[in-house]
Amino acid sequence: MDRQLYIHKRLLELGYTNNDLCNDSDEQGWKWNTLVNQPRTLTDRIWNNIRPQLEETIRLRREKKSRTESEKIRKRRQENLVDAAKVFMTSSEGSTYYVVASELLQLPLAKELVDRDELGTNTPQTQWVSLKQQMIRLSETRKLRLEEEAVSMIVESRREGNLKAVNSENESLDCDANKGQGGVLHHNTVLQHATSFFKNRESGDERLATFTQMLKEIHTYCSETFQNAYAYCDRPFSRELGKPEVTVLSIADAVYAAIDLPSKNMDGLLTLGKSFVCLRCILVLRQLMSWKSLVNHFYVELLNFERSEVQRSKYTKAITIFDHDVKKAGAIAAYTGLELQLTPLELAKWIEACKCYACESRPDGWPIVKCLHPQTCSVCELLGVYRSFTCLGKHNAHWRRMHGQVG
Q1: Residue 399 contacts residue 387 (beta carbons within 8 Å)
Q2: pTM confidence score
Q3: Which of 139, 134, 179 has its CA nearest to residue 155?
Q4: Residue 178's pLDDT band (boundaries 50, 70, 90)?
Q5: H helical segments located in 161-191
Q6: Which residues on adjacent β-strands are paired with residue 173?
């Protein structure tokens, strides 16, 4: 009889199973193949010599299989916890929490649920409720840390620029007034003030961001970790938001002081939608903007002016900051009160309708149609400034205003 078959027969007679005899998962150093696959006939003496080694290999196989099965169960339990947390994080109830998947799995109760000795992979409802409470406490701690860091950034920038701080009545006073009893910063007072803008790290025309906006982006990122690999997120708030620039805060202060705002709260102003207009733009170039876009508009005009300074000597008339210099006397901006409920008559008070063919020929209610004429200013591009226009009329109005002729 073949040596291998004879060995298998003897081991099966001892009560071992066919699975015990499978060597697919054997590791280097295990002697199964060396002992079984030999040309020598298996005698009783040889059998007695190799049997302990064969049984030791079977023991190692069983231990390895047990570990593998245990790890599969642990993984399924982890996946079930992550799935349950994903449902919570993407629900309305969990929309204001900030926990990533890897942090969930590091919670003491989560580890206990994953490593428990009982069979089964489902999480008991009572224990899931307790685990969710641990997630909420962890999230609240993180949000408090984010608020403290954001407030510190605002206060530091204001001090650097010798700007006044704000209190709960929205009046200017020293930065130390932003501290309450026990030296705890009034987070909501500072972060929800209408002038508290951070630098948006994302590229694009919108250079500014609010604290509420960034919290939503952080929540979105945290939720995504429950759908992908278990990414870890414990980045400082300064990596999520750029430090507030003194220039931005100064512009926001000036625009804030120039308008009789219906709300002094940042989120409240943003709910008004496109209800603000820049009075420094000529009528035909004006457009309705949100509160954030209005401040961003003045900031971008300043950046455009600075970028064009290098090339200014090449042109007799180029971009000038004086039109959008918030320190210059005169009306800066206005709140229209329209709140997106526009009629042509109401709109005419603030914005002159464009008379170009593309605008006049479009049916009422249509969005502005982009015509085939040039929609960017070639001179501004040479100056390092990119300006786009929705139609030829606005393009020509810009040329007449900024460069003294029609391009």
Answers
A1: no
A2: 0.69
A3: 179
A4: very low
A5: 187-191
A6: 165
